[in-house]
Amino acid sequence: MTKKLFIRTYGCQMNVYDSARMADVLAPLGYRSVPSADDADLVILNTCHIREKASEKVFSKLGRLRVAQEAKAAIGGRMVLAVAGCVAQAEGEEITRRANNVDLVFGPQAYHRLPEMIAEVARKTGTVLETDFTVEEKFDALPPASATGPSAFLTIQEGCDKFCTFCVVPYTRGAEHSRAPEAIEAEARALVRTGAREITLLGQNVNAYRGIGADSAATLAGLVRRLSDIEGLERIRYTTSHPRDVRDDLIAAHGELPKLMPMIHLPVQSGSNRILTAMNRRHSIEDYLRTVEKLRGARSDLVLSSDFIVGFPGESDADFEATLDLVDSVEYAQAYSFQYSPRPGTPAAMLDDQVAVPVKAERLARLQERLNHQQDRFNATMVGKTIDVLFDRPGRHPGQMAGRSPYLQAVSADAPESIYGNIAAVRIDACLPNSLAATLVDPRFATELNSSANAA
Ligand code: SAH
Ligand code: SF4
Ligand code: F3S
Q: Which domain range does residue 439 map to?
């Protein structure tokens, strides 16, 4: 008998990956994904703890789900409600205290045991809590992955030993842990067999990847080379890199492997050395700029994106100006920026010199204005160029298909539906607010488009 599964994913790409793997684990039990929680038999909230706003979302969602749960119970059914992910890991006890409609709470290292946990929920009353970090290999216990579209995520490294003073990840994901290259290659091949054309390798510190056991000398560059040989895999990306771990072999790989996409997400967080030290980032602005220069030297069309935090405790006007200066000297293609959010249990949350919220808000607005300009400027350089797009969804308007450029820009063009899952050449015509408008020029599909236009 099929059961309805609804997973809501918050936070980073690793959570997206984890949600896909939870669906893989549950499929043999008859669970099929449905687009709404309303009459689902099992609802999983896969949560994020990175900033206060992210984790508060969970509690309001739990409140709203109570209505659907009661409606289902009224007709004799049951909606099992589970909280997974980083809030579950960090605040498991608090969830069971604050929300009595939750049946199951489990952390990122426990989801391969979902079948047992669900059986336990059915057997007993009260909440089942699974937030131990176990030493067993979660990845070995998972069934083979299958792609849900042309672009897939693949976790190669999980956890973090860096302990930046603002960050909860070392506490929610545990210690840094790499997977074996063979297991990764097998998963990549399974993803390609089931339709993936692009794979993004994931890790909280993806470039600290170092294999395991006999392969513990493996590197991210070596892994990318190995995956590059997989026929049918056209694009490889990796995220998130730490500036301290960008090694020369990885830089060289960017110059040598055409499948490795020319965009690197290299979060710098701040442009002030004083703040970087207080953040425990363990690199300087000078180190960062040297790395950027080397990357661009290896591949001239390589572009950068970054994350920034404004209003870290003790950040002065001068520190913030240094961040703006850094942005000016790097020229980012894209970036994410956030107000510092004090997180329980992290060292920075305990510091006295917290920056006032209005100051953080004003700095964030100024930074975002500058970053948006850079992004617009970069997008404008694309107009008139012919670039490859991996088409992975219908466009907004009838007759359109959409996808991503090598630089992760959203691009849409009039195209036949058969282009789905293909990489095809387009000419960029214009920059729209959230995407690039293009004309299909790839002869394989442009012909098809013209003939269907003639037929109509
Ligand atoms: N693994 C990634 C970070 C994941 S969190 C890395 O090491 O870069 C994504 C981003 O959230 C971080 O880069 C940082 O900019 C932001 N972030 C993390 N903790 C934060 C906090 N306490 N307040 C505001 N932003 C934070
Ligand atoms: Fe968090 Fe720093 Fe680790 Fe990134 S490197 S996950 S910001 S502790
Ligand atoms: Fe959030 Fe956990 Fe990812 S805290 S950013 S979901 S690692």
A: 386-455
